[in-house]
Structures are given as structure tokens and as C-alpha cells.
UniProtKB/TrEMBL annotation:
<dbReference type="GO" id="GO:0003677">
    <property type="term" value="F:DNA binding"/>
</dbReference>
<dbReference type="InterPro" id="IPR010982">
    <property type="entry name" value="Lambda_DNA-bd_dom_sf"/>
</dbReference>
<dbReference type="InterPro" id="IPR001387">
    <property type="entry name" value="Cro/C1-type_HTH"/>
</dbReference>
<feature type="domain" description="HTH cro/C1-type">
    <location>
        <begin position="4"/>
        <end position="58"/>
    </location>
</feature>
<protein>
    <submittedName>
        <fullName>Helix-turn-helix</fullName>
    </submittedName>
</protein>
<dbReference type="Pfam" id="PF01381">
    <property type="entry name" value="HTH_3"/>
</dbReference>
Length: 67
């Protein structure tokens, strides 16, 4: 699970903006944001760079999900 959608909302950015910056389709970025699909490690680091956050901050804590 990832927190891409949350970070975009916190920064007032859109999925369309992120898609353009990544060179990906809106549908692909929307799949990331809705957790239907997870980005590769490389894409995760690119997203983190674009959002000015640490890559680890885009990941959900498994312990929180399981509890």
C-alpha cells in the first residue's frame, strides 16, 4: 500500500501533474494513487523526488495495516 494520493492532496497537486512529470498516463498514476497497482522501486523514488518527500514516507507501515 502506498500514500501517493495523500501526499498529492497535502501538496495541492493533481494526479495529472504527476503523470506528466513521470511521463506516464493518467490511468497509470491513478492506479498508483488508488492502490490498484504499485509503482516500481525506481518509479517510487522518482515520485518521492517530485513530491519532495522520502520514498519511505510514501509507503504504509505494515504494522498499522495489520492492527
Amino acid at each position: 500500500m502506498n500514500r501517493i494520493k495523500l501526499e498529492l492532496e497535502k501538496k495541492g497537486l493533481t494526479q495529472t501533474w504527476l503523470a506528466e512529470k513521470l511521463g506516464k498516463s493518467y490511468n497509470m498514476v491513478n492506479s498508483y494513487a488508488q492502490n490498484r497497482r504499485q509503482p516500481s522501486i525506481e518509479q517510487l523514488f522518482k515520485i518521492a523526488f517530485l513530491l519532495n518527500v522520502e520514498a519511505k514516507d510514501l509507503l504504509e507501515d505494515n504494522n498499522r495495516i495489520l492492527n
